[in-house]
Design a protein that fits this description.
Layout (H helix, E strand, L loop, with lengths): L31 H5 L3 H7 L12 H25 L12 H9 L7 E5 L4 H12 L5 E4 L4 H9 L7 E4 L2 E2 L6 H10 L4
Parallel strand pairs: 1-2
Antiparallel strand pairs: 1-3, 3-4
Helix pairs in contact: 4-7
């Protein structure tokens, strides 16, 4: 071997009188040609992933927005048609208070029995709604009146407010829709 060979791994200069094969470094034993090649882990580290170049618009978000708008419009249109027209031909949605007033029209104080407790927030809300809309009802304070407590227990009451409409016990809690349904269902003819 006439030229100077330097090991790429350990930088050892190969002496002319080395006894190992010419392809091998006498100091570290590495093959000169393999030490010059990048390691597989280094090769994978530097290998570039295929790059996808998008051209044009990404229509996905735009389609989703359009879909939400169309569905919202359709739901709005459906509920507008379900409400029906008023006398002038306009569609309008009645408030809960208006529906409650309509259902309670002609009702007596004994038709709606409200079993309540002084600390119950929903009971206070129901009383305020009834008072604001001139809806007749009888309030039965379970904690202040033994007769009311006895009636509440006979109804197997466990929560407040508890409504009884014309003798029919409703589910506990403040549910104006159930109250309106019960008033309309049992309305005297």
């Amino acid at each position: 071997m006439s030229k100077t060979v330097i090991c790429p791994k350990c930088s050892h200069v190969r002496p002319p009188d080395a006894t190992n094969p010419e392809w091998q470094c006498p100091a570290c034993g590495v093959c000169y040609t393999k030490a010059n090649e990048p390691s597989p882990s280094a090769a994978s580290r530097y290998a570039s992933a295929p790059v996808q170049v998008k051209q044009g618009w990404d229509w996905g978000p735009l389609v989703k927005i359009a879909l939400v708008v169309v569905v919202g419009w359709a739901v709005s249109k459906y509920f507008t048609q379900m409400r029906g027209p008023d006398a002038a031909g306009n569609t309008m949605m009645e408030t809960v208070e208006e529906r409650l007033q309509s259902a309670a029209a002609g009702a007596k104080r004994t038709d709606i029995m409200l079993y309540s407790a002084p600390w119950c927030g929903y009971c206070k809300e129901a009383k305020a709604t009834f008072a604001a809309n001139d809806i007749p009802y009888t309030d039965c304070n379970v904690e202040g009146d033994l007769f009311c407590k006895d009636q509440f227990d006979r109804l197997h009451g466990t929560g407040f407010p508890l409504f009884v409409v014309r003798g029919k016990r409703l589910q506990e809690g403040l549910n104006y829709n159930a109250l309106i349904s019960a008033l309309n269902e049992d309305k005297p003819r």
